[in-house]
Design brief:
globular, eight-stranded mixed sheet, 2 domains, Rossmann fold, six-stranded mixed sheet, Hypothetical Protein, Haloacid Dehalogenase-like Hydrolase, Chain: A, domain 2, alpha/beta
Amino acid sequence: MNKQIKLVGVDLDGTLLNDQKMISATDTETLKILGKKGIVRVLATGRSLFKVKEVLRSDLPIDYVVFSSGGGVYDWKNGDLLQSEHFDQGIAKNVCKHLLASNYNFFVYKPIPDNNLFYYHKGAGECREFSNYLERHKGDFSQLNNCEQSFDTGQFMAIVPNDDVLFERLKSEIHADCKGVRVVRATSPVNSLFTWIEIFPEAVSKGHGLKWLCDKLYIDYKTTLGIGNDFNDLDMFEFVEYPYLLENGVDNLKQIYKSVALTNNESGFSKVIELFSLI
């Protein structure tokens, strides 16, 4: 496939990272080759910038990071935060009240760049994914007292069982009760039996972050390639000209988008790049 590509956006967990949270030597070399060809390399991830830096070396050959599912854009080479989004406080309070009234297990994250820190609320019923999340983030959180407090945030996240019908119902309820929001579905990277319902300001998405970069760098949208594996890559797929999934991608999405027969543990990212004759 001989297409002109000027920007490659790639998801991190389950796509560029293998299951050991490492990037293969093959994929690292592919990133270097793309850079030599003048192709802009962008990580598009749901992780906060803090969590991105936990798993990546500072000399990784990439150019930009669209992090927190598009909530922020970071210049990897120069170490500059280029753009960030957060909720209007009135909208944030309304979302908080809805989640409390619905008895969700949920988190409220502090604004970028400190969104590795958060408040939590334990809702109805036991949820081991919720408890495990708190265990993994010891020292990063405090308990949410109520929604009347004045707080700034750019993201909420609730944890529910992984069920298509349940997610669509809860998404509809959130949109009906809370204006000015975007609801994003992500399969838990730790336990696939659970879904993370992420709630952002309406303009925030991986696709929005990539569009912002294209406009800044004067890159034609039709020269963009996006590679991912999960529901939270949908906005990226809808924006880029050429969307691709890896073999470990969600089956529902593979019925809609093209995919390759290699997983994140088999350098599937490089296989997609090879299809476009870029390596």
